[in-house]
Amino acid sequence: MKRGFLNSSKAKQQNEQSTSLPVTKAKLVSKLSHGVVPNAGKGQIPKGYESGFGTRKFFELNATSLDYDPDLYVCTAVPLVTMDAKLSDVPGGWAECVLSGHVKRMIHTTPGFPRRPLSPANGKKLYRIGEAGSKGLGMFATRLIRAGEIIIDERPMMVATASTNSIVSPDDMAKLSVEQIRQIGLREWGKFMKVVFDRMPPENQKAFMELANSHTQDGSDDITGRIRTNGVVTGFRDRNSSGAQGRYTAICKDISRINHSCRPNASWSWHTDSFSLRVCAVRDIRAGEEVTVAYCDALAPASERAEALVPYGIYDCNCGPSCSDPAGIRIGDKRRDRFRFEPVVVFAPHVPPKVGEAPDAWVKPALRRFRELEAEGLEGCNEYHRTAYQLINVYCFLQDVEKVKKYASKIKGVHRVIEKKEFPASFSSAEGIERSQYYQMSEMRKKAGIPEYEPILISFA
Ligand SMILES: [Zn+2]
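Structure for SET domain-containing protein, as requested:
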């Protein structure tokens, strides 16, 4: 699944209780295998190893109850629907889920829940699902989609725990190999998820089974393999959990079709009030262009990205030179390192400009950073937004209205995605820009006869 796959908190407690299990082994168990696991499935599980599945109670007795034990898992529909509900009767549909009592209560008490997922402004789909070459199917824009626009807001078909629920006792843990414990965990998780799958309406079961599965030889079954291939992490988690533990993953009919790119033109976010996953454009997407998101941290070095993509069956991501070409990888990795660890902060100059130098020569580091971020296709990252904001403030200070407008138009869309609110309209008009803080600061200094480079520390970050 996209981002994070670890054991449950229950398994963790067992790990901690076990005195004979070496720490390194416990750590290894918490990562599931992918690729080809020899003798995967039954072959790895010792004969007579009994599953505790039947002893677990996670069938919901009263769907409207929010009083479940916070740590007990229940299978439930979100939002609640009647037993005979049809997908066509429920606007936005519903997700069949397995949730802890804590998470179920949290969802149902979220302000505004269950809001309807948002539709595109004109009610028309902005995309189609179609062939994407060696990647299988993908999502394609059917018209120009502007940065900041919502491409799709979709309620998942299924929400699953993003963890195996290992029932291996501390004693057994010490006796079994790491792979055996993983395989037992996978088998148990599979039984758990089969219950959720069986509750899904037939149309969704069919759509779910049509999704890609890159986990066919590692012990995952038809359901868990598809969860691992297509799930997107949600915004809620079990109580007392941290890191990748206690998380949940959403499997959607259309969003799960979106392919990966290390230079993505869209990003996704989870919304509990509408119980939906929302995908927004982070730069303009042309009609016919494929919509992509990053399955891994797009700011990580190429080798780390490549490793993170293997569980999705992506062995040779070639989304651009910084992914596939050795020279490009060197440049791309160096740039990403700086994007992550050396944020550019520009200060007003302390010395007069040299003769013949442009008045904005001191802004060069921020301009260069901005160009590099665009060259790497990383418009959706915070550093892009932050750098553009600095440039807007700098050019307000320099009273260069056209440049302010230029950078404002560049981050207007991505601001909506990152900040979840509209970009201040004032930066789009000369009057608004003249009223801005830095423009006014400059104006006051001019009136007082203070030159621009007078040594008063002004940071534009
Ligand atoms: Zn790539």
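Confidence is low (pLDDT under 50) at residues 3-22.
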